[in-house]
Amino acid sequence: MNFQDELAKRTEETEKVIRSFLPAEAGFAGTMAQAMNYSMLAGGKRLRPMLIRETYRLFDGKEEVVKPFMAGMEMIHTHSLIHDDLPALDDDDYRRGRLTTHKVYGEAMGVLSGVALLNYAYETMFQAFALTKEQDRVIHALRVVSQKTGIHGMLGGQSVDVENDGKPLEKEMLDYIYRNKTSALIEASMMTGAILAGANEQEVSAVEKAAGNIGLAFQIQDDILDVTSTAEELGKPVHSDEKNNKVTYVTLFGTEKAAEQVEELSEKAIDLLKSLNKNNEFLYLLIEKLINRRK
Question: Where are the domains of the chain?
């Protein structure tokens, strides 16, 4: 398998799925739709929707039911980026190589378009009911996504991050922030793919654990890139953690030890997935490449 060719092909497929569910930029609320789409079409790795589809394929899923979840998950993720960039939080001017949403549309529309995307994500995912006879699987997947997004997931992690911004942190609290703010949506993505394909309870649990390790490794690698990469490579400001006095794995353990944690977590994740005795070579390579990325 030529991984780069396959990645380009599957990224394009994912992009088409996402675009097919975006709101029309029309009517009195057209400006908000423009702001939502501006953020959604800014590019990015499309990691989470791709993980949904590839985990679905890992369990031999064949239907179109994953498509609304792929688009919805990217909407949830993009909503979090819009809000992360706001002056009240990270106050960043650039994201994915271009001006952030609030810099283009204003702070109020930045807030509103982020909230609108979060709501529109669920409107989109509800369309999955029309694409399968396995209604219970859709309900289960929706329950997982809602839990992993809310106070016991991404938004809970974000709140603890904001509340402790600039304060000294122990590893336990930093792990809580990372496992909720970052890992939760990766867990939701991979669990959704497994659930929609009919994986059993033990298999979904193994996928959740693997995804948790992937998410933590992904965030630690983000910490490393913030001090070792360039703004041109990342498409966003570097050294922002230092600027905002954020405690990260790099500040706690140093770059070398943080890199060792990334390797250990990624190996655990791959081993867990391979223990399922399923095969998706592209999924395993995708995880390895994304965790050890340079941007």
Answer: 3-291
- What is the rounded CA–CA span in Å between residue 203 and residue 216? 20
Chain center to CA of 55: 15
Q: Which residues 6+ apart lie within 8 Å of 138 measured at CB?
A: 65, 128, 129, 132, 196
Query: Rounded to the nearest 5 degrees, what angle is found at the Cα of 193, between the Cα atoms of 191 and 198?
Result: 95
Q: Are 127 and 69 in contact (CB under 8 A)?
A: no
- What is the per-residue DSSP string for 153-207? THHHHHHHHHHTTTS---HHHHHHHHHHHTHHHHHHHHHHHHHHTT--HHHHHHH
Q: Residue 260: CB partners within 8 Å, gap ≥ 6?
A: none
Give the pTM. 0.92
The domain 3-291 having CATH identifier 3.10.20.280: the answer here is no
Structure token digits, residue 250 = 């790099």
55-86 pLDDT, tens digit per residue, is 999 999 999 999 999 999 999 999 999 999 99
The 8-class DSSP code of residue 98 comes to E
Asked if the model's pLDDT at residue 166 lies above 90, the reply is no
